[in-house]
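pasting for the record
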Amino acid sequence: MTAIFMVRAQVADAALRKNFDRWYQDEHLRDALKAFKALRAWRGWSEVDASVHYAFYEFEDVARAKSIPGSDALKRLVAEFDRVWGDKVTRSRDIVDAIQRIGG
């Protein structure tokens, strides 16, 4: 089964969302996919809270996903994120182990 490394970002200032979205689209998602060596990556905005952005990185197993926190790849990406967004965007991370899948 696969596992997901998930990043939840809160972009509280609505004026920043367009620039954040463009930056994530044009740079960060691709950089993270490559740095993490993930199978695939996708992202989206919450339909419940417009200030919340999610990014998902899929791995072949939970051990690989668990190797991301504390990795040099994540440290480099966090440093770049902090350089661009500073304290304007807060974020949290989680790892989800897919234990069941039904359908396609």
